[in-house]
Amino acid sequence: MKRAQQTQEQAKVCVQMRRWLLSFASPAVAVLLAVTTLTGCGGASTANGVAAKAPAEIVAAARAAGDAANSVHLSGSIVSGGSPITLDLQLAGDGGRGTVSENGLSFEVIHVGGTVYIKGSPAFYQHVGGAAAAQLLKGRWLKAPASTGSFASLASLTDLRQLVDMTLAIRGTLARTGTATVGGQNVVGVTDSSRSGTLYVATTGQPYPIAVTEGGTSGGKIVLDRWNEPVSLAAPANAVDIAQLQSGQ
Hints:
The protein is of the alpha+beta class.
């Protein structure tokens, strides 16, 4: 009887967690991929000529620089449905790690070797599955395939190549906003008519994206720095496979 109750609790936790991840990750990824983009340090002080290029050429140069990078640190916040989502992620070509939080609920995420791992705070697990989840999953990592299933949408948040290519895809008419200075870095701004934000690209050193600010009054801003610094990625030990929760094992 006790075993049956535990199995039911595990199944309930799994269903609730899946629903929460889908409701949270989908808008978060959509906003990040459709509104925000990558930022970073500009490198050396030598002018790179990007400021004189056409808007589409500026975006192409930023994409090429981002694709050629080995790693980057992404931080900042976006606003989805009126709720701020805070990101602090270290991204590499083969995965990434960091923390994602919304409304006081946070979880750590690691993407490595084709698998996504998450470990939620006590409040996160309490929100996802109630007391049963908080007790069952306290201090534990969950894992699932990066390509399919519950955590697939999180994988695109922690993969440098995917994020660069998807966020720098041109969807509308581009316009150059002129040169400026962001965080002490000389930049040129580019807006996309299909997006409510501005991409700033370094005009010295490598033409890395420097910042993206959301339009309107949302105040969202994403910043990337630490380009090409080493990122240590390792799979957590003794992670619980979410498929086991689904099957009640």
